[in-house]
Amino acid sequence: MRLGEFMGAQLPSYAILSHTWEEDEVTFQEFSDPQNATKKKGFAKIEKTCDQARQTGIGYVWVDTCCIDKTSSAELTEAINSMFQWYAYSTVCYAYLSDLGDEDSVVDSWGGAMIKFAQSCWFTRGWTLQELIAPKIVEFYDSD
Questions:
Q1: pLDDT for 89-114, tens place per residue?
Q2: Which intervals hold domain Heterokaryon incompatibility (predicted)?
Q3: 6-35 burial by CB neighbour count: b if 16+ within 10 A, else e?
Q4: What pLDDT digit, counting tens, does each position of 38-73 carry?
Q5: Radius of gyration, CA atoms only, the chain
Q6: Helix (H) or strand (E) run with residue 88 in it
Q7: Which residues contact 6 (CB under 8 A, 6 or more apart)?
């Protein structure tokens, strides 16, 4: 895994991750130091995102926590203003529901499954509306 920067017509096919931020996310600065980045709890979802993209023939992923330099106020402002386009231009969006796991897939009914799904903390974040409507395709994944 490595960071790359693409502009305009050079934009390759990419998957984008929609997720809720949690403790121990991998930042832009930390991502350039793989030895430390891999020790962070948030690295697992980046790795799973890359694995899923690779399995479907997509060579690039975009993850906000490590693709935006939040120490630069100019870059952070531009990122906030461009977020909808980044999701819209993606080949697929992987929505990671960190608070759902295998144990949540064992429910008594379809209605019970839908209730668990709808109660995920992912649906309580304001940002996720644009992350849900902008991409052409959204695939939902649980923590497993």
A1: 999 999 999 888 766 555 566 677 78
A2: 14-103
A3: eeeeeeeebbbbbbbeeeebbbbebbeeee
A4: 888 999 999 999 999 999 999 999 999 988 888 889
A5: 16
A6: helix 73-89
A7: 12, 60
